[in-house]
Description:
It is a single chain. With about 450 residues, the protein is of the alpha/beta class. The protein has ten helices and 14 strands. Strands 1, 2, 3, 4, 5, 6, 7, 8, 9, 10, 11, 12, 13 and 14 form a 14-stranded mixed sheet that branches.
Amino acid sequence: xxxxxxxxxxxxxxxxxxxxxxxxxxxxxxxxxxxxxxxxxxxxxxxxxxxxxxxxxxxxxxxxxxxxxxxxxxxxxxxxxxxxxxxxxxxxxxxxxxxxxxxxxxxxxxxxxxxxxxxxxxxxxxxxxxxxxxxxxxxxxxxxxxxxxxxxxxxxxxxxxxxxxxxxxxxxxxxxxxxxxxxxxxxxxxxxxxxxxxxxxxxxxxxxxxxxxxxxxxxxxxxxxxxxxxxxxxxxxxxxxxxxxxxxxxxxxxxxxxxxxxxxxxxxxxxxxxxxxxxxxxxxxxxxxxxxxxxxxxxxxxxxxxxxxxxxxxxxxxxxxxxxxxxxxxxxxxxxxxxxxxxxxxxxxxxxxxxxxxxxxxxxxxxxxxxxxxxxxxxxxxxxxxxxxxxxxxxxxxxxxxxxxxxxxxxxxxxxxxxxxxxxxxxxxxxxxxxxxxxxx
Length: 441
């Protein structure tokens, strides 16, 4: 057989280690995948790209009055640093940051729910707030993971206020203590790092100019071995590579293991940018993000035409494949391909309520199962093979209006953030020019 669930499970075991974008383990994972492809007789390359990372050197929150208490926090990247001695002020819980919530914030450290938009922090700065604390985590998490808050960066360019993140259970204690004076310290450094995409190619025969791209991200988040999210997706396309290596295919197959997905789909966006001129030949992207969970259900998000969505539903029923479908965009690498004009889908096997977890140290192989893994893989192979060998391309190169609208909204947000970034850079550039002119004098 060309697909082997136990071979897949061995690769899954090998990949189950923390693989944070920009780390040495990131590079180790990329090299592991490249070596795996070449051992299978499929040529592969590693494509490097630069990413922004933030090293948090120090982050503290202390209540000074009425009674001293230090709370565990992490720093939020791409926000302002405090002075070395920190910032001291009053405290206010601003809930969802409505206009009414934002009265009387001058000289205070504010606590807010969730991740605000960039304009909120500028508003807080104008109103005289000194810094902010954002909530994270789940009130009912096991004690063992309450300090495993997932690091995050502020939206856009540098945030004008220093930001910290606190677990929601600690925030509850903080609010109940009715702080009068608090002190925060944040010392962070922005750096450049390298991440990777691994690309393997199986050339087609008579229709080799048309390309089908399989993708899956291989990076994980801090604290997490990422066995389910998304070593399973990575192993899925590895097995499809074995399948098409043995079977052969009329169209060319690309297998793209994307890095840095967890920090904003960066790997797939960089891939689409680097291969922009080739993408007109890409007829379809089939992405996998989390498969193989024992207790779960099959899901397929289609960033395609409605015709493609219905074709998947039709084939699924013919083959008794129980899948829930939706038309839209998915928070995975298929969205990068769709944004570049390539029809794209994401297959996933999602968990039941209260089931397996991701983005913490519970994401291990414990709740995964080889037979459940094959449910997604078997259908994906059947579906992809029909497209790969069809006499004419059956995937319309158009996206449904609903998909286009969502992609446009995303592009507008990104463009607005980039415009703000450029506007913020102009005064800096002008200052540097003036400094240089003064030095010449």
